[in-house]
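Archive transcription. Copying these from loose printouts into the bound notebook so they stop getting lost. Printout 1 of 2:
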Amino acid sequence: MAKIDPIARAAAMSARGLILKAPYPGADKPWPAICKTCKQPTRSSYTSVITRGQGPCFICGQRKSSAAAARKRAVPAEVAEDKIRKANVEPLEKFPGTQGTWRCLCLNCSREIDVWYSSVVYSGNGACDYCSGSRQIPDADARAELLALGLEALVPYPGSNEKWRSRCTTCKKIVDPTLCNARKTKTTCRFCAQRATTPEEAVEIMKEAGLKPLIAFPGNVKAAWRAEHIDCGKQVDAVLDKVIQRRRASCIHCARYGFKQTLPGFLYLLVHTALGAAKIGICNEGSGRIRTHELNGWHQVLVTPLSGYQAVRAEQHVLSHWLTLDLPQGVSRLDMPQGGWTETVALRDRSLPELRADFDAAVASCMKPHCSGVATDSSPTEEDGYLF
């Protein structure tokens, strides 16, 4: 057996990049040393380094392994750009690699964003924090974006994933999409999307508006469609296009069976903050009608006692004025299960000072001598201009 030469073995270890700190301990025992590369202490044995050919320093070995793995995982710039564009963003700079953020432009909201490539491509997360709702945007910016999508906000911005009460600028109907869904939907208004409707969908739209079709769908949204107004039982010639738009009420014949013109009454103005709407209405003394509205979130702004006949005329004065201004109704039928949605207007269209002025003008008009009498028939007629 050859004699072991500690000096030769020390020279071999030194040649591998180690500064030895102790005499030769034996072939298989840890040999304290300092790595010349990273300056960190090591305890590799002579057998592992020289005989087996392993690296003399564990830390340097880990770094080389990580670097090799990183080179293996490296994504070519052209591949990265192709994949990131599938997330509907456009790169604004060269691909920095997977370990840093990448400045891009979101094609949904047109904002510059910092994208983590690994999060989007490997984890499947959304690229834009604004579109996902994790980052809030200012109310004014959100309103401008919604308006560009064809919807006018009626209440403050609630967040991109919350329902936002709005009105379609095309059909003037009230909808409540989330901003995220509005960005992704081709037709932001669900009612406009039904313009090219099937006969089955057309019947459902009519029923939602409180109308029961008496004949088959005529096949044209602008054609007259004979129907029965469910609330009063009278027949009307409805136009589906107008029903969808809700630009005029479902039935011009509908009488106020609960209101008695021969008894004292009230003219009232209510506001619902969450719905962003105001309502004009009348009720007889002791009817509890105002209380019913209050239980559904409405609160009083103005209330004035009048004779029953005067109350009817005052309310019609306000409604006729709103019709002249071409103001759409402020809420939908589903928003007011207690009824009265046809006498509403959005606060976006009519401010509170303007509503007060409308109310005062109506009261003043019904105080004129020709309005002080009592009607011979308590049910309004079509000639009276009622659009309920």
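Printout 2 of 2:
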Amino acid sequence: MGTFSIWHWLVVLVIVLLIFGTKKLRNLGGDLGGAIKSFKQSMKEGSDDSSSETDENEQAKKIKKNSGRVIDAEVTSKKKQKS
């Protein structure tokens, strides 16, 4: 009695179809597929971000290496002042 036969699963499927209807189940499947797709995409972007972080670390090391120079500059406003 611990295992279910194919007939048990068919009865369950019919009951689920009667309760929810095919349209809701189709929408549920589409939503689930979209969620999985976006999860995979975010995981892929996460691995790309980690490689860009190592590039940024390398650039920071180069800047620290060449940081002996002093740059003199003047900050001005882009807005025109009325006289």
